[in-house]
Design brief:
Length: 224
């Protein structure tokens, strides 16, 4: 009986520790994470640098500010943004503005933009064939010429396909391979819908290591 109780206690401790794991790279204050972009030929097309600051802990919840700067293949700074990322009992919660394609990011910085808050979740534990929660985001804005417009992003059909080992220039991780469908709709006079099939590799307790979308690949290339 004592052995059974001891086993249960150890099991519960393991579950609790897993649930409280909020060491994702987006929540490590002072860290800088560099993401590299490549085309289907493996040629660099740019990079994105994330800097983490203002980490706050309240109970079982941890949040941080993620400042991002995007650079072209030639090293020219093209765009900057700032978002919040949080974790509660091991579940990673990301501001969906981080998933807006680079070509549409400018609309988020528009002073007239009315943004709906929306988040995408990565649960603390997952397994093959799990269906993850969808995410939807929208914003209304005015262009510099006075035209009204809207942008919507939906990430659906999120399914855990398998578990794989992924190696990038920054290290090696055991990841869950997740597929999803991303739909982006931009409307300024006319609707311009785009649908992309996306695959991402997510390391529990760490974050997204690699992403493939169409002919493009992103991966972590440096952590400082």
């Amino acid at each position: 009986m004592k052995r059974i109780l001891l086993f249960i206690a150890v099991l519960l401790t393991a579950v609790i520790l897993q649930a409280q794991n909020c060491d994702y790279y987006f929540l490590q204050e002072g860290k800088t994470i560099e993401i590299g972009f490549k085309n289907k030929k493996g040629k660099s097309t740019g990079r994105q640098v994330y800097s983490i600051s203002k980490r706050e802990k309240k109970g079982n919840s941890v949040s941080a500010t993620v400042s991002s700067e995007m650079f072209s293949a030639k090293g020219k700074s093209e765009m900057k943004s700032e978002n919040r990322v949080s974790c509660e009992n091991g579940k990673l919660v990301c501001d969906m503005r981080m998933y807006v394609p680079a070509g549409q990011q400018e609309y988020l910085g528009n002073s007239t933009a009315k943004v709906d808050e929306a988040y995408l979740e990565y649960p603390a534990s997952m397994k093959k064939d799990d269906q993850l929660k969808d995410g939807r985001f929208s914003v209304n804005f005015k262009t510099e010429t006075g035209l009204t417009g809207s942008l919507s992003v939906s990430i659906t059909n999120r399914k855990v396909l398998d578990k794989e080992t992924v190696t990038t220039p920054a290290g090696t991780w055991e990841c869950f391979k997740i597929s999803c469908t991303t739909k982006v709709n931009t409307k300024i006079l006319l609707n311009v819908p785009v649908t992309i099939n996306v695959t991402e590799w997510f390391a529990p307790g760490f974050g997204i290591v690699k992403t493939e979308a169409g002919s493009s690949t992103t991966e972590i290339i440096a952590i400082r």
